[in-house]
Amino acid sequence: MPPRKPSAEIMLAVDVGNTQTVIGVLEGETVLDLFRVTSGVPRTGDELFPIVERLVAPWHASLRASGIAVVGSVVPALTAGWETLLKRLLGRSPYLALPVGPYGLKIKVRDPAAVGVDRIANAVAAATFHRLPAIVVDLGTATTFDVVSPGPCYLGGAIAPGVLTSADELFRRAARLAKVELRRPARAVGRSTEESIQSGVYFGAVAQIDGLVRRLCREVGGKVFVLATGGLAETMAADSQTIDRVEPALTLQGLRLMEERARVARRRRGSSLPGGKRHA
Asked: Into which CATH architecture does domain 106-254 fall?
């Protein structure tokens, strides 16, 4: 795909997770490109640079012109590497998204700062693009369930072991169970050990999603819109009875909105300073 003309709104959004880091080239609501790299290997900014530079090469000139990037990280040990990389790549430090900020979202949990920034990003995007109340199911290293009510307000939710995380722990602890490819089986009744594992892991995860969503919906009340995101969302949604829509880039869109709203807030603060001075 050829690069577009430089735009003030083209940006890089980086969602640093425990298993994968998702990198998106965004222009407003449009996802121009999306990449996934492993988070399992700690890398410095210098090590990340050639990888990311190659991935975003078609968009590099436009991104360099805008200099806009946002990082949402739930792995503190990896955050500095991404910050260094993006500063070198774009010539400007990225916005490091935090759970609490001027995002237009009330957070009604006991310790808002302890909520994963990816969960807040999902809530911000859900509140912006979809009807409320809503539940966001994010299928990653953990499977998270986040409830957003009109307001919009983030009410909290639930955290369960992720599908692959549960499977890896099963293989690790059960000496006689060989690791198998995890995919949707043709039937729930497995006729071999391999099929039985696939059935238990896959259909068990779907049942977990539907069971928790139904329980959360009863507590929230009314007609709740259910979104799914994350690497396994498309697959799981096909068998789920509760998921209404899949949004693969929901977290990235939330990070984009968080950066934009924080930028607007900084400009407003700057314009209110004596003599028209602005914060650095």
From this structure: 2-Layer Sandwich (3.30)
